[in-house]
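Hey, sorry to bother you again with one of my protein questions. A protein chain has come my way and I'm curious about its shape. I'm sending you its amino acid sequence along with the backbone structure tokens. I owe you a coffee for this, so here goes:
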Amino acid sequence: MPKPRLFSTLHFLRHENPLGLPRSGVRPPLPRMQRGLPTKRPLPSVRKTIAVSSAKGGVGKSTIAVNLALAFARLGHRTGILDTDIFGPSIPTLLSLNGQEPRLTESNQLLPVTNYGVKSMSMGYLVGEDKAVVWRGLMVMKALQQLLWEVEWGGLDILIMDLPPGTGDTQLTITQQVVLHGAIVVSTPQDIALKDAVKGVEMMRKVDVPLLGMIQNMSVFICPHCDHSTHIFGSEGVTQACAKHNVPFLGDIPLHASICDDADKGKPTMVAEPSSGRSRAFMAIAERIASAIIL
């Protein structure tokens, strides 16, 4: 018989504790709501926090977020990644951690799950791999609060927040409550993705989060057989958008079959092909970000 899970979205349907974390003693403080917007606070034991956004699904944001986390770790930084997508978490698969379940500290704080030298936390660790999270907004927001404030990171130089697509409740909660040292917006070069990416840029500006820049993903298709290059989605969409909206351009990531295949196998490019040109592209972007936030 399968081992019963400590956490369940079916057994603990209480608005004040949707993750079902055991309670004993004094509850950890959550951000105090004031009249108007809440006060922003830094995450405990985390030096720098950055958000990776796309506003559009399907542009490879989570794959880029994980590879950037691995690149920061390779640069010698203590690195973590927080998957803030409650309904469609990707980080457990990308880090080959499906089926893992976090332990708890004596004060009932969640302990991150680690692989490849990167600490991680995700809703995917707290529910079964094939279980759907069928919650309304209030439950989702409380679960997000717990992921933000009830994780014991143990001291990080940088935490990457992988945001879900869109510009709604999750994004607003994070940007209004957490001190973010910058945000990155990921897009493909095609217009249909750029339209939403620009909305993500404007949202970050409205909530006063520093924009570190945009990353152009799937910029060019490289044939794995002959190495011929083809610009399937266009070639300069993101660079033109950066120039138009005065946003730094952080770099290109090519469309290559191995990036997708390795991600599905739980071995991101930085792990599977650490010396490839694709890994070098991630390293170059990570170095630019580290310089921008003075890491």
